[in-house]
Write a structure and sequence with these properties.
mainly alpha; two-stranded antiparallel ribbon; 12 helices; about 70% helix
């Protein structure tokens, strides 16, 4: 739980950091640079520990979905919408993860989980479709951020099987490498076309923060959590992302959330809180933290709960 809380706090600041970095760094290049930093940290660690390679059939989908597409779409969306809006829209990721985990892994959220997911999605719809006193067609930026949330949901479901089977560090190295393989060619083309100016110290510091804090550390924390926790249960902790993201956007960027954004944000948080209110099955609490599991904390498809 502590790992997921810390990951949510770090990811909550990534939209603001990314928004600031996009002033000087093109979106595809920014995504490639942050995972170039992550790979430069993870690869030597894996070599030192003698970690084996994760099969391409496992690492490639994680890298392409959880790295290449997720952050490419996020950065493209951030160029076209506000940081606070992007953070709120990422509240769709836990609900999407719950749905995918139920369909693919056989995880069984109770009525609280389903009701919470529905409430969170209502909040996302409020943010996405509202405009002044009426409705609007979702903007391109909103659609791109939602697509990014969908990619992360797919990563979480696939990671639920990959991290327990192969270990945290080998999977992280494999997915970072495949993610870079997907981003690097597009980044080269982008640089040739846009020819951006050299980045300053501020942008370099932001790239390092995104690469070390919001990529290397957060994915390591998520990988650790997914070894012992169902994907749907872990995703609930992403409720911190919209809260921290909006607060950071207000404090750092001076953005002013609209009434609809506040309403949608409240619905997202309430929905994700409801999704966490699972009753532990009888006789399944462990000795640490009161967490409910079935026979094995490493199994796929156990009933999850927070005591």
């Amino acid at each position: 739980m502590l790992a997921l809380v810390l990951a949510g706090l770090l990811w909550g600041t990534s939209d603001v950091a990314g928004k600031l970095a996009l002033d000087a760094v093109p979106p595809v290049t920014l995504a490639a640079l942050r995972f170039c930093v992550a790979l430069a940290i993870l690869w030597p660690l894996a070599r030192r520990r003698g970690c084996g390679r994760v099969p391409a059939r496992t690492a490639a989908p994680l890298g392409l979905l959880g790295v290449s597409l997720s952050f490419l779409l996020q950065n493209l969306g951030l160029e076209r919408t506000s940081a606070s809006n992007a953070s709120l829209l990422q509240g769709a990721a836990p609900a999407l993860t719950l749905a995918l985990a139920a369909a693919v892994l056989g995880e069984r959220p109770t009525r609280f989980g389903l009701g919470g997911a529905g409430t969170a999605m209502a909040g996302v719809a409020t943010v996405t479709l509202s405009s002044g006193g009426g409705l609007r067609v979702p903007g391109t930026g909103d659609a791109l951020v939602l697509a990014s949330a969908g990619c992360f949901a797919a990563f979480a479901v696939l990671g639920r099987r990959a991290f327990p089977a192969h270990g945290i560090l080998p999977v992280l190295v494999g997915m970072a490498a495949w993610g870079m393989a997907g981003l690097a060619p597009a980044a080269v083309v982008e640089l040739l076309v846009t020819r951006p100016d050299l980045v300053g110290l501020r942008e370099a510091a932001l790239v390092l923060y995104l690469g070390v804090g919001c990529s290397t550390l957060t994915y390591a924390l998520w990988g650790f959590a997914l070894r012992y926790t169902e994907a749907g249960r872990a995703a609930v902790f992403d409720s911190l992302v919209p809260i921290v993201g909006v607060a950071a956007a207000v404090l750092v960027l001076g953005e002013h959330p609209t009434m609809w954004q506040v309403t949608g944000g409240v619905l997202v948080v309430v929905g994700l809180w409801l999704a966490a209110q699972e009753d532990a099955p009888e006789g399944t609490r462990d000795a640490v933290g009161g967490r409910g599991y079935s026979d094995s904390a490493m199994g796929i498809g156990e009933r999850w709960s927070i005591g």
